[in-house]
Amino acid sequence: MLLNKRFKPIVLVGFMGSGKTTMGKLLAQAYNIPFVDIDSKIVESVQLSIPQIFETVGENGFRNYEYEQLQAQLCKAQVIATGGGIIEHSKSFNLLKQTNASIIWLDAPIAVLYHRIQHDDNRPNAHAKSFSNLKSLYLSRVSRYNEIAFIKVDTDKPSSEILNEIKQALN
């Protein structure tokens, strides 16, 4: 399948640590299309790290930057990795609900996600949080991921299996 002829972006959503960036790069490579990471675009445009952005303009300010980047990126045939909390901002959530993109929810058991992110200082919503706190945050987001995604893929397995599952769903 030649994705670029469809002109339909692939958007990866899911909780922190679910593998959106890793799988996004592999997926873009497999389809020979660009890959864009919304968080990286924000850091590049604002010239601050994500924790610094949260410190300076708060989570709401960060979510506004996220919405602007999402809006700008949805018009291109590419793979887009979103931030785990993009569905928290109503404008971003509604934009994702209305877009013609293929939205894929990457997920893993909460214990796996916690293990992947527990020592990552670049995630303000996870930094110094207990398993219980992160599980509550995860559970508060699940229904929103489910509402916008056309498929849910378990990422607690080898990348090659995940990639094949996604490719089959897209075909």
Structural write-up:
By secondary structure, the chain is of the alpha/beta class. The protein has eight helices and five strands, in the order αβαβααβαβααβα. The chain has a five-stranded parallel sheet with strand order 2-3-1-4-5, with helices on both faces. α3 (38-46) crosses α4.
Features:
Rossmann fold; 8 helices; 56% helix; Shikimate_kinase/TSH1; EC 2.7.1.71
SSE topology sketch:
Blueprint: H1 3-6, E1 10-13, H2 20-31, E2 35-37, H3 38-46, H4 50-73, E3 79-81, H5 90-98, E4 102-107, H6 110-117, H7 131-148, E5 151-154, H8 159-170
Parallel strand pairs: 1-3, 1-4, 2-3, 4-5
Function: Catalyzes the specific phosphorylation of the 3-hydroxyl group of shikimic acid using ATP as a cosubstrate.
GO molecular function: kinase activity
Subcellular location: Cytoplasm
